[in-house]
Amino acid sequence: MCEILAPAGGIDSAYAAINAGADAIYLGLSQFSARSSAENFDIEGFSRLSRYARALGVKIYVAMNTLVKDSELEGFLNTLIEVWNAGADAIILADIFLGKFIKENYPEIKLHLSTQAGVCNVYGAVLAKEYGFDRVILARETPIEEIRLITKIIKTEVFVQGALCTCFSGQCYMSSFAGGNSGNRGKCKQPCRKLYSIDRKGFEDLAYRLSLADLSVGEKIFDLVEAGVLSFKIEGRMRRPEYVAAAVKYYKNLLKHSASPSDLGSLKRTYNRGNYTKGLAFGQDKSFVSSAVQGHIGEFVGTIKVENGKYCCYSVERFGKGDSFKILRGGKEIGGADFAQNIPHGFILCSKSRLRSGDKVFVTTDTTLNSALLVDRKKIKVALSLRFCKGARAEVRFGTFKIYGDSALQAAENRPLTEDEIKSCFNKVDKYPFDIEYVSIETDGVFVPSAEINALRRKAFAEFFDYISANKNVQAVARHSFPNMKSAKNNLIAVISSQSLKTAADFTIYKPQSYLSVDCDAKDLFLYLPPFMTSAEIEQIKPEIKKFSGIYCDGSWAIGLARELRIPLFAGTGFNISNRVDVAVCPSSYMVLSKELTYSEQKELSVENAFALSSGNVKVMDLIYCPFGRRCAECDRRRTYTLTDENGRRFPIRRYNVADCRFEVYNCANLIGSSPVGTFIDCSLGVSPDKLLDIRSDEQMQKEYFKNYTRGHGNSPVL
Q1: Would you state the CATH architecture of domain 493-618+669-710?
Q2: Distance between CA 484 and CA 487 in Å, rounded?
Q3: 698 Cβ contact partners less than 8 Å away, ≥ 6 residues apart
Q4: Using an 8 Å Cβ cutoff, are 277 and 258 in contact?
Q5: Are 623 and 662 in contact (CB under 8 A)?
Q6: What CATH number has the domain spanning 3-164+215-282?
Q7: 590 burial type by CB count under 10 A (0-12 exposed, 13-18 middle, 19+ buried)
Q8: Per-residue pLDDT tens for 454-501?
Q9: Phi, psi at residue 420, to the nearest 5°?
Q10: Region label for 276, one of left (φ > 0), alpha (ψ between -120 and 50) or beta (otherwise)
């Protein structure tokens, strides 16, 4: 059975999702959630909601999908156990190694692997299943062909609606390095939604060059059903309850083959960034990047006609007080407008912007629709049998579940209890989501005071609700112990190089421009593999991989590939190794710690095979799409470009080729410093590895060499 999974950023959105017909909801707590700016839940509030959801047959998954530092491990595990014991149906984790540790210590807890883990191929799916995960939430970039393969291995959850991250899942550090707040820890400042220019013809003007349109797969959901996907996920823990309700209704109706154009229209009006894209599962379409409009665009309802100084919009629709609109001219937003009054065949708008005839009008707030979306209430059909007979206690039966009155009933002296009076009482369901259906009502002339029958009703409904909302989770009792760290000094040096194949480093990791033909003497080199690769792409380059002594990768799926090829693995910064459990569980030969750790945090994880990025280039994004719209015929095919923000900060972009072109975005400042563990230097942009090796111990020389530099998070803890 297909599952529609809805977001619940707060209690109102949770009820909106349930009432709209969601099969499951996902939410975060006040800690360890990748959407820390959402309203979120405390344990008490979650416990109440979970009871309500269970009664209505709705599952709840709790997102604890942030990067967990070593000092946070105990608190994280205690919170996870507490929320499981409070009734979570599954916990969503981003840390695959921590998941393996939890499953070994608490096999009763059900785990889902977050999209932040970047599962995008069968190697990642096999590893997730091996480590005890019940389900994987696939990276949004995973193509439909790969999804078909993965669903044969493990249960899958796929995004069908909502915001898209511009960077490949779990690999974005731009907010962290450019703004000090980590997306991996739920504090993303959304730098991808800002204005940028790119030094390529046609892209020189400031626009939303990295801002993606919202995902809406629509009828493509049937391709995902055919591919074997179990759960269809709606993104939006930061969005309003009416959006949640509209999205749930749209996809529920689609799956029932009863969706109407108005269902999609309702969704567009509640939130719609960029008029929607089908997403990368089905290939990059023309609407994928929303460079002209950032934020809610709404639904098109007409065009402006300026008459006698008034902004008229002729439309068959009626609007009212409180309704708002966005105005576009030439595809670009030029201002907002509010409803003023209805006129024959249309309405008049008021706006602070100067509008022109021909401007397009999009409704972004439809107050009547918003109210209508939140009217529905999901109820439980309750088959009720009642018996009020002389000499016996009153009996209330819900199927096989029975509740009795306190004492035997007596015959009435004057006015016997009637069937209508019984119905009138039990039709009052109070706070409970019950839809009463009477199977039988039996009474033989007894007298029952109204206070007594009301008390019986309250008792019966309360006990029945407790019965159907009971938490059936096997309760977990804290019994874990974390691995002991055997501190060891690592004096080795590793370098990523895109040009020089022979360096003075102990390990050289070669990053090619193209993976289609890696023509080099690969002896004693590691091959850099990007975090996103499909199974077909991996299969195609296996002959090239076998030329090398080992592989380096930023995706944990490479564990399976290295094991299959029986070669060493260098686990990259994208593994986000942040705590002692990660260090102990990760089976790689060598590992680079998360680049969001301070020097002191790195030192706590000092083992003989651990490295930390200490100097050179800092990759902050992996783009699995073309920011130039895949206009290949007019492409200049340069190796590097420059992304420039409104403040003049320049972020290098590196293009490389697998089956198609992909791009890496680098920080506007290079990294300088040292490391308390093994030294790791990134020379992806062509910086001389040997030059950096020569000056790696001299910070002043590093400053002079780079000019524009940062110490990263060495001395500045990331939020």
Answers
A1: Alpha-Beta Barrel (3.20)
A2: 9
A3: none
A4: no
A5: yes
A6: 3.20.20.60
A7: buried
A8: 999 999 999 999 999 999 999 999 999 999 988 888 999 999 998 878
A9: -65, -40
A10: left
